[in-house]
Automatic annotation (TrEMBL):
<feature type="transmembrane region" description="Helical">
    <location>
        <begin position="224"/>
        <end position="248"/>
    </location>
</feature>
<dbReference type="InterPro" id="IPR001851">
    <property type="entry name" value="ABC_transp_permease"/>
</dbReference>
<keyword id="KW-1133">Transmembrane helix</keyword>
<feature type="transmembrane region" description="Helical">
    <location>
        <begin position="317"/>
        <end position="338"/>
    </location>
</feature>
<keyword id="KW-0812">Transmembrane</keyword>
<keyword id="KW-1003">Cell membrane</keyword>
<dbReference type="InterPro" id="IPR043428">
    <property type="entry name" value="LivM-like"/>
</dbReference>
<keyword id="KW-0472">Membrane</keyword>
<feature type="transmembrane region" description="Helical">
    <location>
        <begin position="56"/>
        <end position="74"/>
    </location>
</feature>
<feature type="transmembrane region" description="Helical">
    <location>
        <begin position="31"/>
        <end position="49"/>
    </location>
</feature>
<feature type="transmembrane region" description="Helical">
    <location>
        <begin position="86"/>
        <end position="105"/>
    </location>
</feature>
<feature type="transmembrane region" description="Helical">
    <location>
        <begin position="174"/>
        <end position="193"/>
    </location>
</feature>
<feature type="transmembrane region" description="Helical">
    <location>
        <begin position="112"/>
        <end position="130"/>
    </location>
</feature>
<feature type="transmembrane region" description="Helical">
    <location>
        <begin position="260"/>
        <end position="288"/>
    </location>
</feature>
<protein>
    <submittedName>
        <fullName>Branched-chain amino acid ABC transporter permease</fullName>
    </submittedName>
</protein>
<feature type="transmembrane region" description="Helical">
    <location>
        <begin position="7"/>
        <end position="25"/>
    </location>
</feature>
<dbReference type="Pfam" id="PF02653">
    <property type="entry name" value="BPD_transp_2"/>
</dbReference>
Length: 357
């Protein structure tokens, strides 16, 4: 009989626990979980680009916006009014197309220069989102059409859906959609990293000269990593739009790109599980601090005036300190820390001493 390892047992227990949450948690905690799952999908994509292939990107918010606004425009009015499921798939493809159009630059520009080039995408996206009012709604943004798959709507319905005595509204339904999407992204990213593309991307990160000498087409793999990362970001943008039910341009700014970089650094570069953990930490921390601001010292409730700092600023200070601690003491991030806990290092094997005649 095959023995189940600690990592597999912990994963199975976590999956069962996550599936049971909608039956016990209120709407606030379900929303925190939804935003965390959407952030985890985007962080996994950025980790493939920056953590695995070593390409610095400050424009992740742009591809999130392409996915979110692409879905809203394709499924809504004004717009083509496509079925929401089709609009969701096309929005992800649209983000991949945007990444593909930028990929020639990503295939040739490196380091901080690539970071500056991707930073330009954020400012370009802000300009388009504010001025293309027919598509984006301008400063006021747009409401998000609910997702519908096979006649099942991920929104409030009348009569309400009741499962085991628990009313299932929009948050409960979107919770399971988020779980399915996160699981699909998780396993696809892990399989990609364990296969030949993952080894090629890791070789690019370590040394492009050595990778090229081994026969890795450097420009093609750098461009492919950018496209895949953009598609993951587009999927995250769609889920964020569905969870918010309304999107505005201000959300998709430079601060959001910085948040995603913080997620992968805190979680651990090159780790799918670490990117997920970092996304949960960075996303949930300001929301939880905002809810319990009246019980925390030096933190003001949202909208309050005074000398205390708001929960969002306090959260940024805390995960800024977390980045410093990770870089100094836990270079592998939360993912590396968990791996050491679950799989302790194997003690070295002592070689027998040679006996003298």
């Amino acid at each position: 009989m095959r023995r189940v390892g600690p990592a597999r047992a912990a994963g199975a227990a976590a999956a069962v626990l996550l599936c049971a949450f909608p039956f016990y948690l209120d709407a606030f905690w379900l929303q925190v979980g939804l935003f965390s799952m959407a952030a985890a999908i985007g962080a996994i994509g950025l980790n493939l680009l920056s953590g695995t292939s070593g390409q610095l990107s400050l424009g992740h918010a742009f591809f999130l916006a392409v996915g979110a606004y692409g879905y809203v425009w394709l499924a809504g009015e004004p717009g083509p009014g496509l079925p929401p499921a089709v609009a969701m798939v096309l929005a992800v493809c649209l983000s991949g197309l945007a990444g593909g159009l930028f990929s020639p630059i990503a295939g040739r520009v490196r380091g901080v220069y690539l970071g500056v080039a991707t930073l330009a995408l954020v400012f370009l996206g802000q300009h388009v989102m504010v001025n293309a009012e027919g598509v984006t709604g301008g400063f006021n943004g747009r409401s998000v059409p609910p997702l519908e798959i096979g006649g099942f709507t991920f929104a409030e319905t009348d009569p309400a859906l009741v499962v085991l005595g628990v009313p299932f509204g929009a948050e409960e339904r979107l919770w399971y959609l988020g779980l399915v999407l996160l699981a699909a992204v998780w396993f696809s990213a892990r399989n990609l990293l364990r296969g030949r593309p993952g080894r090629a991307l890791s070789a690019l990160r370590d040394s492009e000269v050595a990778a090229a000498a081994m026969g890795v087409p450097v420009a093609r793999y750098r461009s492919a990593a950018f496209v895949v990362s953009s598609m993951y970001a587009g999927l995250a943008g769609v889920l964020i739009a569905l969870a918010f039910r309304g999107i505005v341009p201000d959300y998709f700014g430079l601060a959001l790109s910085i948040d995603y970089l913080a997620m992968i650094v805190i979680g651990g570069l090159g780790s799918v599980g670490g990117a997920t953990a970092g996304a949960v930490f960075v996303t949930a921390l300001p929301l939880v601090m905002g809810r319990y601001a009246d019980q925390l010292p030096l933190v003001a409730a949202p909208g309050a005036t005074g000398h205390a700092i708001g929960p969002t600023e306090a959260a940024r200070y805390l995960y800024g300190a977390a980045i410093i601690l990770v870089l100094l003491y836990v270079p592998g991030g939360l993912g590396g820390l968990f791996r050491r806990r679950v799989r302790p290092p194997t003690p070295p094997v002592r070689q027998p001493k040679e006996q003298t005649p």
